[in-house]
Amino acid sequence: MPRRFASLLSISVAVAIAASAACTPCFAWGEDGHKIVATIGTAMLTEDAQKALRELLGDESVADAAVWADQIRSDPQYDWITPLHYINVPRNATSLDMARDGNGGVQVVSSILKYRDILKDTTKSQDERRLALRLLIHFVGDVHQPFHVSYKDDLGGNKLTVQAFGKKSNMHKVWDSELIRRRLNDTKGGWATMSADLRQSVTAEQLKKWTASGDPAVWANEAFSITRMLYRDAPDPTTGVDDAYFQRWQPTLNECLQVGGVRLGTLLNDALAPGSVKAATDTKAAKSSKPAKTTKDEKSSKPAKDATPKQPVTAA
Ligand SMILES: [Zn+2]
Predict the structure, then answer these.
(1) How many whole angstroms from 182 Cα to the centroid of ligand 1?
(2) From residue 271, how far is each of 37, 103, 118, 141, 280 by CA, in Å?
(3) 148 DSSP 8-state letter
(4) How far is the CA of 64 from the centre of ligand 1 (A)?
(5) Ligand 1 center to residue 63 CA distance, Å?
(6) Which of 17, 194, 195, 223 could staple 39 via S-S, CB 3.0–4.6 A?
(7) What is residue 277's predicted lDDT score, i.e. its pLDDT?
(8) What's the gap in Å between 15 CA and the centre of ligand 1?
(9) What is the CA(223)–ligand 1 centre distance, in A?
(10) Distance of alpha carbon 172 from alpha carbon 162, whole angstroms
């Protein structure tokens, strides 16, 4: 229980809900996070899966597809998508229970399963499968953002007001975008370079471990264990989220993005080109110190020439 936040929660519930509803990115990895997960994942695709993905997306970049589900939030016809970005867990729970937390299937875990099946089903229309693809690229990112597997009473950390790097923020937003933005301050080339760095530092052991389960309920449980650690390590209200917090949690942040990307790649290979999964696994960047093939999206975001991989990231 984040008692240190209690004194900060003086805003009324109504105001907080209205504020968070008006703040679209507060419910998901920010754009950078989604693009990073998406490009780590699609760099793993086999040729067949890449071809199938391109046929569905046409000229739409993977990066654009990754943020589509956030960009349509102001369009009422897509209101049904809003509760699919996250899953709520009771405050006293130590793990997820899909019978208890399933919300009738209206949450991120069952949505990943549902849209994976639609994407896989070639008897479905192109439009249905394109929607499924966009949602999957987005939701697999979301389920690896710890505050998307969190508590209803504080709106997944949206009501946990905190100072972050000298500005008013909240813990959901900190993990959506503030920490990534802080990291990007040190990264020439923006999100594309950060994505390439993270992808290239995934080891063979990590790849094996992270792809051991394709069950999004397992993924959500892992995210929830991180969520619980984050609540136990709530920033001091006086100092807020500062460089010390960033340094402490950066390895975990990196790993959330890496795991999300690796699992997305595995899922898309299976859904778009069944049978090609093993080939994709064997082409992992971990076996080579050379940068993997640059994706169209990475090229389009014009990464700086200085894309030298940084030190391998270790798990927290
Ligand atoms: Zn989202």
Answers:
(1) 21
(2) 17, 25, 9, 17, 13
(3) G
(4) 13
(5) 14
(6) 195
(7) 52
(8) 22
(9) 15
(10) 10
DSSP 168: E
Assigned fold of 3-300: P1 Nuclease (1.10.575)
CA of 28 relative to ligand 1 center, distance in Å? 4
Cα 188 from Cα 239, distance rounded (Å)? 28
Tally of CA atoms within 13 A in the half-sphere of 203 that contains its CB: 8
pLDDT of residue 29: 79
Task: Give the pLDDT of residue 186.
Answer: 87
Give the 3-state secondary structure of residue 82. helix
Q: Comparing C-alpha atoms, which of 234, 71, 203 is closest to residue 137?
A: 71
**CA gap 96, 239 in Å, rounded:** 32
Q: Which residues pair with 150 in a beta bridge?
A: 88
Beta-sheet strands, E only, within 208-271: none
CA of 176 to the centre of ligand 1 (A): 10
Ligand 1 midpoint to CA 85 (Å):
4
pLDDT at residue number 275: 81
Q: How far is the CA of 139 from the centre of ligand 1 (A)?
A: 6
Nearest alpha carbon to residue 198 among 280, 262, 248, 265: 262
| Structure tokens that stand for 274 in this block | 């069944």
Question: CA angle, corner 21, sides to 17 and 27, nearest 5?
Answer: 105
> Ligand 1 centre and the CA of 65: distance in Å?
12
Q: Ligand 1 centroid to 306 CA: how many Å? A: 30
Name beta bridge partners: 162.
Answer: 169
Q: For residue 303, which phi and psi values (nearest 5 degrees)?
A: -65, 155
CB atoms within 10 A of CB 220: 26
CA 167 to chain centre: 24
Q: Residue 60 is encoded by which pair of tokens?
A: 């739409």
Taking the centre of ligand 1 as the mean of its atom positions, its distance from the CA of residue 170, in whole angstroms, is 16
Kindly list the averaged pLDDT for each block of 10 residues, start to end, along the chain of length 316.
37 36 51 97 97 98 96 94 97 96 95 98 98 98 98 96 96 97 91 96 97 98 98 92 97 98 98 73 44 42 34 31
Q: Residue 123: its pLDDT value, please?
A: 97
